[in-house]
Amino acid sequence: MGRNIRKRRSPLAVRAVAASAALAIGGGGLIWANFYASAHEGNSTQNQTKAATTQVATIKCPDVGQQLSNVPNQARGEVDGELATLDQQITDAYQRLATTRDAQTRDASFVQNSILGPLKDRRAAIIDRIQLEINRVGGNAPNSLDGLATCTGQAADQTQANTGGQNTGGQNNNGGATASPSASASASATAGNGGQQGGNGGQQAGNGGQAGNGPVAADFVDITKVQPNVAQKARTQAGGSAGTFSSSCGVNANKKFNTDNVIVAPGVTNGAHHLHDYVGNQSNDAFANNDTFAAAQTSCANQGDKSSYYWPVVRIQNGTQDFDQNNDGGGKEGNVGAIKTVKQAQIKFVGNPKSKVVAMPKFLRIITGDAKTTTNGLANANAHWSCTGFENKVQLTTQYPICPQGSSVVRTFKFQSCWDGVNIDSANHRTHVAFADAQGNCANGFKAIPQLTMRLVYNFAAPTIQNGQVKNAYAVDGFPEQLHKPATDHDDFINVFDVNTMNKVVSCINNGQRCR
């Protein structure tokens, strides 16, 4: 694997009992003010996530990996390692942002001179190395990479704008999901939550959260106050495929966790910067390869399914600590609180309303959603949050639902269902698969494959919001600078079905059967 085999993650000590806020970018500098954002400031027994008193910034950097659509196979290991280094640089810079409030207060140019400027220089060096690696093996590194070194500060109102209000142009609008754009959900939040979206004296503006990096009150909405926004599914036409194949793989009761992501950062320890739940394949870590997956044990009842299904954990920010409080990817990087085991994890493969499906190639990798929507925007968002009893009415992308008594939180994923017919992965881990359009059509050259759908149900007490403060918030794990926004939710899949079982999946779906 070359350089990227060594551990690239340095320990972080994210302290955010008090952090610093950026009001705006202007005139070449940032204006900063103090804020408080802690579950423990004043009264730690209240288990309360306080909203901050003024605006807060995170760090926004161009996503270099998404610009790499064509990397020669010989260079991918090295390039993936360098991309992981870029992620680490952002994490380190955010940690410095969160722990230098006094200096920022005294010097309006501190952030630019001491954080963003040095970050640009470090990123430029890594981007140069990426270009060299690609060109060294005969590839052609895009010239546009040169302009991706500069990062900016992002104010709190900008993070809300990036993740609040609509999904237009994202994965959800590409035929791959049943929910319509969630503008109605965000528009309803002000009325449903006592006005915490605005007009609350600025209490909403801080990063909030038990570790000072989210979520805030505006990230939640009473689902009973949201207008229905789920569109009807396309009807299966003659020639379509209406069957299903379900695989029962448990709920990770054996607690297989790690903070790696072998798809995006193979060979890199803590490549995800957040903790994953794993079901199915029991050998998935940063150093696994296809041979490892094929020889692994599986938690799936059908032993012909050794696929790896993994997603970021959900935590309750109630002031408690979990086993990873002092670990990279855990408390050291702002992922804090009690990890919740899912009550149900339903895995189902479905068909295509327009055509028959073909078998997935073994070891196909698919990532759905985007862990960096807070800074990237919603183009690749595919998060769906709802409550039992509301799933056919309301699906939320940019807010977490507050469910009524007796109802449970539900995360739903609908993966890309069109494959390019050749590749099991791509340089940016996206372009080898795609969503069908609303009628089920795949783009030219792409073939319909069984669509993986997942439904994760959680059983915990609903958070409450009073006076712009959220108590006992829940949040999905994420990169620290992404502020635990709901739109950052994502899911990962590696196909390790054996040939006979995959053929059964295809046959059941194409023949309209219900199989498992």
The whole-angstrom Rg is 22 Å
- Average of pLDDT: 83
Spatial gap, N to C terminus: 37 Å
The largest sheet, given as strand count, sense and whether it forms a barrel, is: 6 strands, mixed
Q: List how many beta strands DSSP finds.
A: 26
Domain DUF1996: 263-495
Protein name: DUF1996 domain-containing protein
Keywords: Membrane, Transmembrane, Transmembrane helix
Region (Disordered): 158-216
Describe this structure in words.
This protein has a domain of 360 residues. The strands form eight sheets. It has a six-stranded mixed sheet with strand order 15-17-21-13-7-26. The chain has a five-stranded antiparallel sheet with strand order 8-9-10-25-14, with no helix packed on it. The protein has eight helices and 26 strands. With 516 residues, it is an alpha+beta fold. Strand 1 and strand 2 form a beta hairpin. The longest helix has 27 residues. Helix 1 packs antiparallel against helix 3. Pfam families: DUF1996. This is DUF1996 domain-containing protein. Keywords: Membrane, Transmembrane, Transmembrane helix. InterPro entries: DUF1996.
